[in-house]
Amino acid sequence: MRRKPTIQDVANLARVSKSTVSKFLNDVPYVSRETRKKIEQAIQTLDFRPNTFARGLVNHTSGLIGLVISGVDVLVNVELIKAIELEAGKHGYHVVLVSTNDDYSLEKEIPQILSEKFHYLDGVILANAREGMDLELLRETFEHVVMVHRYIPNDVVDFVTIDGYIGGKLAAEYLIGLGHKKLGMIAGPAVIYQSRDRLEGFKDTLKEYGLLEDSVIIESGYSVEEGFQAAEMIMFDYKDVTAIFASSDMIALGVLDAARLFRWKIPEDLSVIGFDNMAFSRLARVPLTTVDGRIKEMGQMAVRKLMERIKRERKEREQAFLRPSLIVRESCREFT
């Protein structure tokens, strides 16, 4: 097996010092044009590929950022990962992916795990933040941290998220405008602030219209299976409910699955609204009306904010709530 060429091999062939090659690779000035040409020719002849991690040691960077997600099987994370990887690539960075598999006990240990095993990262994007996570411990190791999608109210870390409160209001107002008076909501876990925001927006709107007391609210996880179970509970225990707001498209998919099994017609028997506007929502058996969570845009903005921190272009803390919009498809109808 052929040995990989080293910086020393390049230096020997170009007849320059190893330190001169290192300066060339790291774009340090004062390397003459003639010397640069000799080094470039040596690199091409040897097919030398510099170790980007080693180069980063000179610049005190690794060229790597961490992305912590709740699980690779969560479709919203799939879209978020893609957006973050593409945007990071534009800035010359690669992404190290860490998944907690939505294990709450593991998520609480994430700051310590990252500090011990991934301390070389230039920064971290957290997409799995929930109440109880020790952000201060994380900041002790990583100067640059940005939360995306899920967030924790704080005074030290940037975040980019959707305005879940406005999203909850949009869903409630739309269903009420269609004439629904007996509404159900399948809310996400209360330890996730986004879940709380969506619930509070929905509840406050129902209260404004005097419909809160007649509504049904069930807390659920964000999986399809949990959405199925919650829908089953609502529709069999509260038969007068005519519309359900699901706190995510994954939950809504579970509602649609339950409707198929129990032969509830969507939207004739039950109107359904999701949240996130995942790619599959428009391809569902009944195209899903949903609140657009602007996932791609959130991922891109999170990377840009992290790059501003890494490159020392910004010192002040920035926390952004993006305004959602309602995407109307075919899963809701007027109730008369």
TrEMBL record:
Q: Which UniProt keywords apply?
A: DNA-binding, Transcription, Transcription regulation
Top-level taxon of the source organism: Bacteria
PROSITE patterns, per database record: HTH_CROC1 (PS50943), HTH_LACI_1 (PS00356), HTH_LACI_2 (PS50932)
The keyword Cell division is assigned to this record = no
The record places domain HTH cro/C1-type at 6-53
What Gene Ontology terms describe what this protein does at the molecular function level?
Answer: DNA binding
Record-annotated HTH lacI-type domain positions: 5-59
Name listed for the protein in its UniProt record: DNA-binding LacI/PurR family transcriptional regulator
Origin organism of this chain? Ammoniphilus resinae
